[in-house]
Amino acid sequence: MADTASPNIWMRPERPARGPRPAYSRAQITEAAIRVADAEGLEAASMRRIAAEIGTGAMTLYRYVPSRDDLIALMVDHAIGQEPLPERPSGDWRADLALVARHTRAVGLRHRWLADLPPAGAVFGPNQLRVIEFAYGALDVGLPIDDILTYVGMVMGHAQLAVRAEIAWEREAERGGATAEQRMRRNSPYVDQLIRSGEHPMFARIVMDARQPHMSPDERFRYGLDRVLDCIGAMIPIGPRMSALTRADAPARPS
């Protein structure tokens, strides 16, 4: 269990005010940990392993990074920062939120171990804060903050679910399991039987008419994202370029 009394890693100075220059930087330690996690999974990125990767002992590493939770926080924030976002929203909320979704997906597919972290693992490091300011700022023109949280959550949730599905299929293939196409072929006789029974009309429509099961991951991601953005557009009180409105023109915030 993490020590809730210890300072947040972002509150700790990287270098002490006095004493010799540190032999390692946080960036060096973090990059070594990400290399291990990318290649072997998050569990492999132990404090002892990362210390060995940079050529020091585990106890020495703890002087730089006090806990593994802190190490993971550094890894997550560094990974987020590897996919750049503009400094500020463009004024087109739909384009900006689509960019946030693509950013989330790109980071997740580049670093598959992120999918193994609990959903509540927010770290609020500098790179994550940049994403927050960009994503939530795209809708900050008078909407209640809880609505902004909900709409951005819908977009990021879509991206995260897409990433988890893609990673699950990749891992299944790496284990030598059946691909999605192979599973469909294997289940075809049973599916045909269900359709002929006439007892499952919605299931029959999915099998006979739906395009999504036959889309590539990229196509499925874009299709779903467009629908999420359409839903958001139907709920907000002004059009797709609402961020271009001035504060004076935007709907008043509730008192």
TrEMBL record:
| SUPFAM superfamilies noted in UniProt | Homeodomain-like (SSF46689), Tetracyclin repressor-like, C-terminal domain (SSF48498)
Its BP terms in the Gene Ontology are:
negative regulation of DNA-templated transcription
DNA-binding region (UniProt annotation): 46-65
Region Disordered: start-end pairs: 1-23
Q: Name one Pfam family in it.
A: TetR_N
A molecular function annotated in GO for this UniProt entry is: DNA-binding transcription factor activity
Coiled-coil regions listed in the entry: none
Q: Which InterPro entries match?
A: Homeodomain-like_sf (IPR009057), HTH-type_TetR-like_transc_reg (IPR050109), HTH_TetR (IPR001647), Repressor_TetR_C (IPR004111), Tet_transcr_reg_TetR-rel_C_sf (IPR036271)
Which keywords accompany this UniProt record?
DNA-binding, Transcription, Transcription regulation
The HTH tetR-type domain extends over 23-83
List the PANTHER family: HTH-TYPE TRANSCRIPTIONAL REGULATOR RUTR, TRANSCRIPTIONAL REGULATORY PROTEIN
Name under which the protein is recorded:
HTH tetR-type domain-containing protein
Q: Which organism is it from?
A: Actinomadura macrotermitis
